[in-house]
């Protein structure tokens, strides 16, 4: 007999000796044996809610357990003399760059580039290269120092950032023949950092904040978040830099006012001439008598400083052609004169900037006692009818004369200004040998007076033991 058949037989026989009381019990309580008993609804709702609560707790524990450890924001402090703070994003790219002293502010403006989004090592090299170009760092001086401090509340993160910077910047120094020393630590502050159980970077940042905010003490700073310490350093730096910028701009304001006044005066003068030409054009269009038009043109010629000619026109077409030629000449002259004025302003602005930067390099202070040459009136010599090459010489003479004037007014002017004078004078001599330069121009009082002025300047330099 198969197992299946044996099981069926045993089941049927069990009915005889094991009474089935199911029907009897159900009938006693008024329930049909075949009727299904419904469970109360609240019981299912309770079980369902409990299940969701348990599931939520499991998910929450899982999320907390597997979420990576969050680090505070990373900072990098660069100190060459220009001092900067770099704020990094999660991938160690530049999120923000803040100058911490006037040198850094001037250098950042001179760099004229956007460091945001660049890798931290590229940004550091941009600062190093700009510092080299602007004379803050001698890359051939093995005793010069570039200090770069990584900052993060988490020691592991800070050390990783420090190691990455060391490797990349040392390689960049080697590839660019920079012999300066890269320092990524501060032995004097390391001991203090260990005593207070914080990272070196935190201690350096706190020390920077203490230098800038005299009301802050170490005990209070140690209780603050790294972001708040950085904010204090930035806010105090901005206050000092705002004071510096205001003084710097105030010193330049009179020079800029003189420049704008000269340009405005020049534009008004030429505007009156253009209005007269417009009136003459209207006379031509309305076919007014030619002798009247010629008379007005001849009268106008006496007002134009750089125009030679006569109003010998026989037709209205010739009159219109002459008016067009005068307008073109006037526009060209106006542009040239404005270039001379703006060039004189920019030369002095650059020389002033160099002077302030030199003061900062020497004693970490700055003076705004620069004496400018505010005479922007266009000289008669500039109004002569010269060719293109002669105009270039005129511009060079104006540059050299301006730099000589501010050198005489500011005896302790930078060596860079003297180098610019020498460079412009060599260019002047080369152009004077050009075949396009007329003898009339070479022998003019304008050139003779300039040559005498330059010789006198060279003699004066000997009093300061400077020889050309």
Overall description:
With 468 residues, the chain is mostly helical. The protein folds into three domains: 21-66, no CATH class; 75-240, no CATH class; 245-462, no CATH class. 65% of the residues lie in helices and 6% in strands. It has 16 helices and five strands. The chain has helices at 3-17, 22-28, 41-66, 102-111, 120-133, 155-175, 187-195, 200-212, 218-222, 226-285, 290-301, 316-363, 388-409, 415-432, 439-442, 445-462, and strands spanning 75-79, 83-88, 94-99, 145-151, 181-183. A five-stranded mixed β-sheet has the order 3-2-1-4-5, with helices on both faces. A hairpin with a 3-residue loop joins strand 1 (75-79) and strand 2 (83-88). The N and C termini lie far apart (130 Å). 23% of the residues are buried.
